[in-house]
Amino acid sequence: MKKYSFIYLIKSDLYRQNGKVSFLLFLKDILFRKGFKFVFWMRAAKYFDTTPVLKYITKLMFIYYKRAYTSDANYRTDIGPGFSMYHVFATAWDKEVKIGSNVTILHSVTLGRKNNKFPVVLNNVYIGPGACILGDVVIGNNAIIGANATVTKDVPDNAVVVGNPARIVSYNGSSSALVNVWKEDN
C-alpha cells in the first residue's frame, strides 16, 4: 500500500466526515465525533509507532478509546486515505487485514481470520453494521456489504451482498452509499 503522510490521512478522514477540511472542523470532530476521534488516535498510534515518547502517548490514547468504545481494532492495520467510521462500537480486525481508500465501516463489524488468512477490502467499500468478513476474502471496489452479512467468499466489484451466507443481490455498487469520497488530488 502507498505510504501517505499523517496530515494527508487526517485531512482525508476529516473530508469523509464533513465534505470539507478546516482546523475548526478538526477541533469539533476530535472533541465530539467518536468515529473521527477513534480513527485519529488509531492513525496516530500507527504513524508514531517508532517515535520516542510520542509512541507512548498515542498508544495510550488509542488504548483508552479502544476500551471506551469496546473495539478490538488493531492500529497496525494498513488503511488507505478517507477512512470513515460512524459508530465504532464492537468493531474488530487484526493487523493482517488490508483496508483500501474511502472505506466506511459501521458498528459491530468483524474482519476476521479463518485458516490463518485475512480479508482484503479494496476501495470505495461500505460495510454495514454487524457484518462479518472472514478468511482469505477480497471485497471488490465499490462493493456494499449489507447489515449482518457473513462473507466467506470473494465479492466482485460493484456487488451488493446481503444475508448469511452472503449472496449478491445487485451490481449497483456503493456510489449511493458513500458520501464525501476523497479523491487522491484533494
UniProtKB/TrEMBL annotation:
Record GO terms (molecular function): serine O-acetyltransferase activity
Keywords, in A-Z order: Acyltransferase, Repeat, Transferase
CDD domains in alphabetical order: LbH_SAT (cd03354)
Enzyme Commission designation: 2.3.1.30
Enzyme class at the top of the EC tree: transferase
Coiled coil location: none
A Pfam family this chain is assigned to: Hexapep
Protein family membership: Belongs to the transferase hexapeptide repeat family.
Record's protein name: Serine acetyltransferase
Source species: Grimontia marina
